[in-house]
Specification:
With 368 residues, the chain is α+β, with helices and mostly antiparallel strands. The chain has a seven-stranded mixed sheet with strand order 1-2-12-13-15-14-9. Strands 3, 4, 7, 8, 10 and 11 form a six-stranded antiparallel sheet that branches. The protein has a two-stranded antiparallel ribbon with strand order 5-6. The longest helix has 22 residues. 34% of the residues are buried.
Amino acid sequence: MTLFKNKADIFFEYKNHLQLLDLPDDLITEMDELSETLSKNNELAELTSKAFDDIFLNSTDRKTAYENLSAYCKTVEEKFSTPSEMLNVFLFTAAVKKLSKEYEKLNLPYDILKATLRDIRIWCEHYYKETGKYGLAETGWLLLHFNCQLFRIGRLQYVLKKSVSDCMMFENKNSKKLVAASAGIPLNTQGEWDENFCIVKTKFEENDKSYTVHISENGKIDLKATVLSKDEWSLILSEKDDALEMHIPEDGKLSYDDCIESMKEAQEFYKKYFDVDIKGFTVMSWLADEALNEVLPPESNILKFQKLYDVRMMSKLGSHQTIQRVFGDKWQGDIINAPENTSLQRNVKKSLLNGVKFREYYGLRKAF
């Protein structure tokens, strides 16, 4: 099975989706110039067409698709001495045709398709910002979009999953107080996730009358386990429940009200089109880090964004994503020379050099 009778057509398919993709003008110009050159290389066209089929038509899951894509990129770079990142742009824009048909089959709205596909532009621009040239490197991530596993709805993106496997949320039946808990997490003396200086591992035990767990209300996890009586507490979100994993695209203002509207629309979307009753929302992001309170003003949209979650819990991941999003990938391991063009950059850099630990946090919220 193939979508392109003429192998070289794969390098021109993007022209049929320019309005939908809304690509930068400079990128379109570059693709116009490259497509003519690439299409004349019969061997490359044959290889790219076969890779397209293997990635988008014949793969049964995202893992296999990514393996096929990685093999194609390696072959292209070794055999043709051609950077694969720009060829990735042609591959993914060519796949829009198939994705559009999938949306039609599922009766999904066109505006959701267009919003979801905006990530191609976002990551092409991100690559340009990092390297000074256009290309796509976040291909494993984008395969979620092209497998109908991720949708952008309003300001945020969503992936339907069972709740984060190492997070649970409990609700007090009387006070409605919410706490998070986890099992198997190595904690240091400060209640931080730390595999190197672990003094206790969190546990989850359940019997007819109670749960025994290490709870977290706003980040750090209690070293001592707490017994929660089933007469007083309900387990309202666990790995058995359908939840929406939230992601924050790199464009636009991060407004609290826009996020709330997006979450409500997402809950309705999954019920209407997939008949799924969403039990909660989860996120793991640098934006949920309580350390940001030390570097941002109270009116910051990021701090307002943190109020979306009912409870937060520290994850095992360190400052990598914070540095990536604030400064850029190339400053990993070289923070002393990182730019100071914004107040956020200046404050985060100063804090890192002063030993402040930034890390990703889980955020959990009940469904509406």
